[in-house]
Amino acid sequence: MRSERPLRIIHCFRSPIGGIFRHVRDLAEAHARAGHEVGIFCDSTTGGAHEDALFEAVRPHLALGIIRTPIDRAVGLSDVRLLWRSYKEIRRLQPDVLHGHGAKGGALARIIGSALRVNKYRVARLYSPHGGTLHYPRKSLTGAAIFRLERLQERLTDALVFVCDFERQTYFAKIGRPQGRSELVHNGVDDAEFVPVETRPDMADFVFIGMMRDLKGPDLFIAAFERAERLTGRRLSALMIGDGPQQRQYEEMASRMGLGDRLRLLPAMATRTALSLARTVVIPSRAEAMPYLLLEALAARRPVVATRVGGIPEVLGADSPALVEPGDAHALGQLMAEIADDEGWADRTMPDSERIRMRFSASTMAHRIMQLYRELTEEALYADARLRTT
Fold first, then answer.
1. Relative to the CA of 286, which of 2, 5, 278, 371 has its CA 20 to 30 Å away?
2. What is the model's pLDDT at position 387?
3. Which residue ranges does the record assign to the Glycosyltransferase subfamily 4-like N-terminal domain (predicted)?
């Protein structure tokens, strides 16, 4: 008979910034409201005031609490101490589900979950890549080594969960078809987010929202903005909102190009607040999986210009005129200039909001993930019962 007891769920990930953190918060809140006990295990050295506020907002939903400890991005000897420390912390919480997000979180969840199983404690082990290691070239030495490790860790995995078809197909191509179970569950946003954000008279023309690092393309945004000004022959305005390791580099770049009075950098803030500050959102990433910003902007009725990477074409459409090739600041600037001079561009180009709501719903995402948790924990209990009778 199927058990509907509340589950004890721990999400493991490294950096509490950006899409992974948003994804985990959405799942945690939805599953806590459904009566489950949820906890978070992540790095203590990344994030700032904005992330601290997000932790405080989600804390009431986390019956198993928030565990933060230093977690290095790179693999090293410190990971041995990290694994032992993490094992003791997680074992104390007696989880039914360990869900790892990103390469480091995935390794922690699967290795610790497997160690618990050795000690006859049944726990479901899941892994969501969220892009991450899949961005490495297959033929590079680093990529080859990482993909080999990913393949080996499949033996410790009960299910892989992909957030978009691009991520799934990239995994198949670079690592191979999973030897075990895999599922595709798209990211989603809440119904409450499908409300247009406020339109203000002092809005900037364009906004970049995200982590200040080259992978996300802030430098491409700056170069494209400068080209858009030249093509339109008039002054435009832009904002860059976010934090990150290369922020000073982009400030200096904008200053060198003489854009300082039209392009302002602001610290990270709530996404809907950021969306209310500009007419058009630009996502100039060099690589992505399925960026939440895209879904949030479309839900808020903000037009989006983006690069043709990751799962973005799955949302906007493969042939959308809102897409340019990654790394092409020239083409991006030309498109931004076109938008600045064409008030009807968004109405002709952006996908229907109701279609986005039906396909990328947070409630559907949380429901499908919980179904998977249930199936895996029941399989674990069944396997445990068989072991006890043999």
1. 278
2. 47
3. 17-192
Task: Please name every residue paired with 239 in a beta bridge, in sequence order, or none if there are none.
Answer: 207, 264
Ranges of residues in the chain whose predicted pLDDT is under 50: 1-2, 387
Co-location of 34 and 171 in the same domain: yes
What is the chain's alpha carbon radius of gyration, rounded to the nearest angstrom?
A: 22
Q: Which distant-in-sequence residues (6+ apart) come within 8 Å of 181 by Cβ? A: 158, 159, 160
CA-to-CA distance for 347 and 366, rounded, in angstroms? Answer: 31
What are the structure tokens assigned to 125, written together? Answer: 């082990």
CA nearest to 305, candidates 196, 217, 380: 217
Other C-beta atoms closer than 10 Å to the C-beta of 172 total 13
What range defines the domain where residue 283 resides? 192-359
pLDDT of residue 389: 53
Q: What is the pLDDT of residue 88?
A: 95
Domain annotation covers residue 2 = no
The 3-state secondary structure of the chain, one letter per residue: CCCCCCCEEEEEECCCCHHHHHHHHHHHHHHHHCCCEEEEEEECCCCCHHHHHHHHHHHHHCCCEEEEECCCCCCCCHHHHHHHHHHHHHHHHCCCEEEEEHHHHHHHHHHHHHHHHHCCCCCEEEEECCCHHHHCCCCCHHHHHHHHHHHHHHHHCCEEEECCHHHHHHHHHHCCCCCCCEEECCCCECHHHCCCCCCCCCCEEEEEECCCCHHHCHHHHHHHHHHHHHHHCCCCCEEEECCCCCHHHHHHHHHHCCCCCCEEEECCCCHHHHHCCEEEEEECCCCCCCCHHHHHHHHCCCCEEEECCCCHHHHHCCCCCCEECCCCHHHHHHHHHHHHCCCCHHHHHCCCHHHHHHHCEHHHHHHHHHHHHHHHHHHHHHHHHHHHHC
Overall domain count for the chain: 2
Stated pTM of the model: 0.87
Q: Are residues 62 and 161 in the same domain?
A: yes
pLDDT of residue 385: 54
- Whether residues 108 and 125 share a domain: the answer is yes
CB 131 within 8 A of CB 167: yes
